[in-house]
Amino acid sequence: MLRHLTTAAAVTLALAGGAGIATAQDGPFEMQIAARQGIMAYRALQLGTLGAMAKGEVDYDAAAAQKAADNLMASVALDGSMLWPQGSDNEANPKSEALPAIWADGSDIGAKGKAMVDAATAMQAAAGTGLDGLKTAMGEVGGACGGCHKAFRVPQ
Amino acid sequence: MRLASVIKGGVAIAALGVIVAWVVTRPDPLPDDAFAGLTPDVAHGEQVFWAAGCASCHAAENAEGEAKLVLSGGMAFASPFGTFYAPNISSDPDHGIGSWSMQDLGNAMMRGVSPSGQHLYPAFPYVSYAKAETQDIADLYAFLQTVPADATPSRPHDMPFPFNIRRAMGGWKFLFFDTDWVLTGDLTPEETRGRYLVEALGHCGECHTPRNALGAMDRTRWLAGGPTPDGKGKFPNITPAALDWSKADIIEYLTSGFTPDYDSAGGHMALVVQNTAKLPETDRAAIVAYLKKVPPVE
């Protein structure tokens, strides 16, 4: 009986150890992937503030809306050139959800990025001026985020 | 003698079977006066166009903005029965449907029958569109005449025998072409509008309702989700049993594509959102009122 338990424990330990080794062995471009995912999450956080107003969950607050829109714009304006090295796609490193199509010939990732800049600029101009403008800009931003995800991110 | 009569009887029964099958599988077009006396409204036709999502399938893949109105066809649909390609339905008279009459469009959308009297495949969601109002089809017809002509030839479907026989669709239709509303009972005007947008024009059930072995929607599990036709993904359950988002959350999703945690709608739903985003907010609210009303299915 005890022997059995010991064997089971040994097996469990071996499994746990194996798992530990697997995660310790990092794939390529861990830092870049973590950084860009963080920037994406930061955008989602700003949209949380704007979206709560668009949905009517909280009262419209021009100053808070402007701040979130400014932050969104700042995240879009960040120099991201070092964040997307060739070989950091989801096939090279499963921690990423970025599709290899980003780096393929004829990829229009640049156009998708431009659409994001345009939408964030429109949001920055509208957010502080009233709820209707914020709502319209929200649709544009949603289209820009979603348009790039549809083309270049692993489907959820 | 006895044997002969048995054989004769057998032949007669077989012949009868063939006749029944022929009748059952015969295309069943609309009455000739289905559109009599209707005056089309082009501006409203554009609303019908977006509500019905024609561009999602008939515009070139990844088309955006104005290009969504170039209905040159192209979207591919993998299915267990073969691969379908959405045809050119631009206003081009040769490669599109520029020479079709209003009656022709009505027959295609509401009966799944082409102008030459052939059955269309239900990858074209006419099982849903059949519930549309004839006035809406008339308006849509007028709008479709205003979209650009494009001369891209339609791509033939890749279908193995026997699914490549259009006549075979007749039996399928006879069994599965059910145009009754799924949600019945007391509905508010908003819920009734929502039912029209979800069950008829928006054809939400075509993706979100699981299908039986022959590819027909299982109405007992309405909107309860299921595997995608290629088997690789899943359509989520959007009955209240699974979709516990607030009304405001779902309206926002159908407007900007943002989920409650500000991730974006993905896959084919991203295309659907491009359409629902163009509807009046009251229509999106109606869709949500309906979704909150459908029976929860685990």
From TrEMBL, chain A:
Pfam families: Cytochrom_C_2 (PF01322). GO terms for cellular component: periplasmic space. Binds 1 heme group per subunit. Heme c binds at C145, C148, H149. It comes from the Bacteria. Keywords: Electron transport, Heme, Iron, Metal-binding, Signal, Transport. The keyword Transport applies. InterPro entries: Cyt_c/b562, Cyt_c_II, Cyt_c_prime, Cyt_c_prime_subgr. GO terms for molecular function: electron transfer activity; heme binding; iron ion binding. Residues 1-24 form the signal peptide. One of its GO terms (biological process) is electron transport chain. This is Cytochrome c556. It comes from Albidovulum denitrificans. The lineage of its organism: Bacteria, Pseudomonadati, Pseudomonadota, Alphaproteobacteria, Rhodobacterales.
Automatic annotation (TrEMBL), chain B:
It comes from the Bacteria. Pfam families: Cytochrom_C (PF00034). InterPro entries: Cyt_c-like_dom, Cyt_c-like_dom_sf, Cytochrome_c-type_DH. One of its GO terms (molecular function) is heme binding. The lineage of its organism: Bacteria, Pseudomonadati, Pseudomonadota, Alphaproteobacteria, Rhodobacterales. It comes from Albidovulum denitrificans. This is Mono/diheme cytochrome c family protein. Keywords: Heme, Iron, Metal-binding. Coiled coil: none annotated. Residues 40-148, 189-295 form the Cytochrome c domain.
